[in-house]
Amino acid sequence: MFLSQLGPDQRDSAISQLGTEQFDILVIGGGVNGVGAALDAASRGLKVALIEAQDIAAGTSSRSSKLIHGGLRYLEQYDFRLVREALHERELMVSTLCPHLVKPVGFLFPLTEKFKERTYVGAGLALYDALRGFQRAMPWHKHLSQKQINEIAPSLRHDLVTGAIKYFDAQVDDARHTMSVARTAARHGAIIATQVSAESLIKEGKRVVGVNALDLESGKKIAIKAGATIMCAGVWSDQLHARFDLTPGYNVTMSKGAHIVVPGSAINSDAGIIVKTPISVLFLIPWGDKWIVGTTDTPYEGDRAEPCATREDVQYILDQANRVLEPKLRADDIIGVYAGLRPLVANNKSATTTKLSREHTVDRPAAGFVSIAGGKYTTYRVMAKDVVDRAVIELRRLTQESVTEKLPLVGADGYFALEQQKERIAQESGLDVATVTHLLNRHGSLISEILDLINEEPKLLGKLDVNLPYIKAEIVYAASHEGARSVDDVISRRTRLSFEAVNHGLHLADEIATLISPILGWSSKERKESVAQYTELVEREKVTLGALLEVNS
Ligand SMILES: Cc1cc2nc3c(=O)[nH]c(=O)nc-3n(C[C@H](O)[C@H](O)[C@H](O)COP(=O)(O)OP(=O)(O)OC[C@H]3O[C@@H](n4cnc5c(N)ncnc54)[C@H](O)[C@@H]3O)c2cc1C
């Protein structure tokens, strides 16, 4: 029996195991594809290790639009296979694998003309609904008149919008989901260590037999031995192929996508909104009591670890959203901004990134070494299965089949029953029902571990900030159970304060550091350094964004 807990003790023992044990599979990269591969391989009964150079989901997997969707716009590219596959994954996540994390969300497709557009978009959405087959976790699309739209979405321009079609997709806190997949992999025996970077390959002849890694916290070198190494490095793939002196079958082009976050009051609508733009689509997505609006799609060649939105990105998003909104969004409505990099698999670097396929590629550039890149968040499980299927051939022995289609993530077990008992949980715990709902939607049945912390230390029941839903116990838990190693890990990924709170949550950094310090065994110097590191990160982002966000500081 293994534990899903990712705390400091677990990391210490992971570091020592990495250097002393022989693994079947070593995964490089703790984005959704890497942790998905670790879970897939561990649940086949293989001995698995995963190393991540930063934090779980620190790359693209915390910076997406957070939609679990079939990809409506791929229908226009006649990519029916991709849409059907993604809709199947959407259904699995909402109903079985992680219903506590992945929730249905309705979107309005506004129409600006009465007949032709309604027929065209309606046919597309009927096909979208039909492609999911007999699976029915989400309602069928619905045609709405102008009168209905005025009631549902008063913020849509009455002079322009003649009606709409409402359809359903799903949404997720991507970083939290990726961390939950990592914990589920640990639950099935995978050894997981963050802040460990793959530096070079260990070879026997031409065969890759492991990786020389560096523990970035201690500076210690670790030689990790594995029958097969799987690289899931997203936009770092080209860089690592070069570092490892491999000739890959594909290149990864980077495309930047930015989002803005505005308060709930800035857009008056009971459903999300999707708007066609000249290059793609723009989503206005409900996010708790806020809205996430994006995204952009521009070629990118800067720093992979810290992609920043620019003033131009933000202006583009405002301009596109304001084509259909009245009153219009203003720059001083913006609470937060974030940007991410799409890893787009390309054979020809000069291709324009918008037109590249979102499908994934599995490659085997050397014996014992397999890599994967591309795809989308929604289909991570399929990608993980595909890359592990290829990697196990390198083990040259019989192995088990993937079982992840039937394997709920930690926290999913019993979620639907707990959801019906939230009043009772609230009464017994002293929390209000809204907070219990918030905890169930973030932790599922692992809420019991949060409640245990509160029983031990009742003051952890308090809110971190009266305007935000997080309680102090969740901050402690982030370090004790969810692998957070820094203030940035907690603010940017275990919670989403970096874009949900004003001024990137800087005013909360000190208190967060004080809460996690005893868990991580920090000295007062280390505590201050972690706060300073987050402050510097925010300052760098603000410089790139110009003075735009200063109005909200
Ligand atoms: C703006 C935007 C919006 C998107 N929206 C959606 C959406 O709504 N729905 C959807 O389905 N998909 C969406 N996507 C796509 C989706 O987010 C990505 O396909 C997915 O997150 C990629 O995951 P990954 O694991 O391949 O890469 P990453 O998450 O980037 O993971 C790669 C990891 O490798 C690590 N790494 C790099 N070098 C090393 C090393 N030397 N040693 C160890 N580790 C290393 C990195 O630190 C990183 O954590 C979006 C993407 C973007 C950019």
Textual characterization of the structure:
It contains 19 helices and 18 strands. The chain has about 550 residues and is of the alpha+beta class. Strands 3, 4, 5, 6, 11, 12, 13, 14, 15 and 16 form a 10-stranded mixed β-sheet that branches. Strand 9 and strand 10 (about 220-230) form a beta hairpin. Helix 15 crosses helix 18 (about 510-520). The radius of gyration is 23 Å and the shape is globular. The termini are far apart. The structure holds flavin-adenine dinucleotide. Flavin-adenine dinucleotide binds near residues 30, 69, 341, 342 and 343.
> CATH homologous superfamily of the largest domain?
FAD/NAD(P)-binding domain
The CATH architecture of the largest domain comes to: 3-Layer(bba) Sandwich
Helix content: 25-40%
Shape: globular
What is the SS-derived class? Answer: alpha+beta
Number of strands: 18
Mean pLDDT: 93
N- to C-terminal distance: 48 Å
The radius of gyration over CA amounts to 23 Å
Counting DSSP H or I runs of 4 or more residues, the number of helices is 19
Q: What is the count of distinct domains?
A: 3
Measured by DSSP, the beta-strand proportion falls in 15-25%
What kind of sheet is the major sheet? 10 strands, mixed
Bound molecules: flavin-adenine dinucleotide
* CATH topology name of the largest domain: FAD/NAD(P)-binding domain
CATH structural class of the largest domain: Alpha Beta
Spans with pLDDT under 50 lasting ≥5 residues? 350-357
